[in-house]
Amino acid sequence: MATSSDTNNDTNISHNDAAISLDFPKGGGRPGLGHDVQYQYQGFWCFAAGIEDIKDFQHNFKALDTDIVIASVPKSGTTWLKALTFAIVNRSRYPCSSVSKNYLHHPLLTVSPHDLVPFIEFKHLTPEYSSPVDSPCKLIATHIPYPSLPESIKTSTINCKIIYMCRNPLDNFISLWVFMNKLRAMPANTENNPSLPIEEAFEFFCDGVSEFGPFWDHVLGYWKESLDNPHKVLFMKYEDLKKDPKTHLKRLAEFMGCSFTLEEESQGVIEDITNLCSFEHLKNLDLNKDGTWRKGIENKVYYRKGAVGDWKNYLTPQMVKRLDCLMEEKFQGSGLVFETYLP
């Protein structure tokens, strides 16, 4: 874990890694579990262009009371949560039932969730902070750890809300490793970084050197804030949402200030949203099978299995034991527990 002496927050960064001054960050970069070299910034790790965009976001973004921020460690169900929040907030304007005459006009059928709920720190990928579709509130997403969010988001005088999604670290690691290797292999990646063997990626993850990691610091930041300010931060687990989507969609809608009515529940609106945003449905849309996102990133890399317990197909017993012990140490006393979910 980094300390304040490990970083120099005022150094300018170029999109060209070679142009980064030697004192940013102190000690230089590490390969890390990412699509490119990782650098430490304010206690977490990120690639150079991302840090430049994060600094711009921190200095210039002004949160509004109506903003809803979707936050997560990469590969924790972010795409799914983006789709769900967009569908819930806009359900009156865009019906989610396949029998509705307006169903075929639903933006999720033709627009990536990453465009509908844009990442606010990646201006080199998404130049605008706003969705291409008007919405009753501004939905935005971030992978930035809680302490590094702009002060306008964190301040108690602004009523914007944060929804945080986390995932069992075993599955999170596997999904992140596979995803980063896909990005490394894409033609749009001009860095020509070779694929990471799972053993090497695992060492990086356990050392905390993964994009926006360490994992435990990221999760604990939002977890503690959700305990202190439950009206401000809603903490959700990917596995719980998979296991009981109806209960957690009701919880999600209530937190966002747009609870489902009894009439909506009786009409099956929650089930319609669940079906529209299901992993299999989104994955099989032409948009997500053949389309590309920004900078030539193929949409299909965001849809792999969406399974719970897939780690058992990859990790050795020794790896599982090591990661379990590490998480027990890092989360000790926090009250946050990750169960070993199996299919």
Descriptive overview:
This is Sulfotransferase. GO terms for molecular function: sulfotransferase activity. Its EC number is 2.8.2.-. The chain is an alpha/beta fold and 343 residues long. 38% of the residues lie in helices and 8% in strands. It has helices at residues 48-60, 78-89, 113-116, 151-154, 169-185, 198-207, 215-228, 238-243, 245-256, 262-266, 269-276, 279-283, 286-290, 317-331; strands at residues 39-41, 44-46, 67-72, 138-142, 161-166, 233-237. A four-stranded parallel beta sheet has the order 4-3-5-6, with helices on both faces. A two-stranded antiparallel ribbon has the order 1-2. The chain starts with 38 loop residues before the first strand and ends in a 12-residue tail after the last helix.
**Fraction of residues in helix:** 25-40%
Write the H/E string, N to C.
EEHEHHEHEHHHEHHHHHHH
Q: How many helices?
A: 14
The class by helix and strand makeup works out as alpha/beta
**Mean pLDDT across every amino acid position:** 84
Radius of gyration: 20 Å
Uncertain parts: 1-27
What gap, in angstroms, lies between the N and C termini? Answer: 33 Å
Query: What general outline do the C-alpha atoms trace?
Result: globular
Strand order of the largest sheet: 4-3-5-6
Instruction: Please provide the count of β strands.
Output: 6
Proportion of residues in extended strands = 5-15%
Largest sheet: 4 strands, parallel
Protein name: Sulfotransferase
Keywords: Transferase
Organism: Papaver nudicaule
GO molecular function, one term: sulfotransferase activity
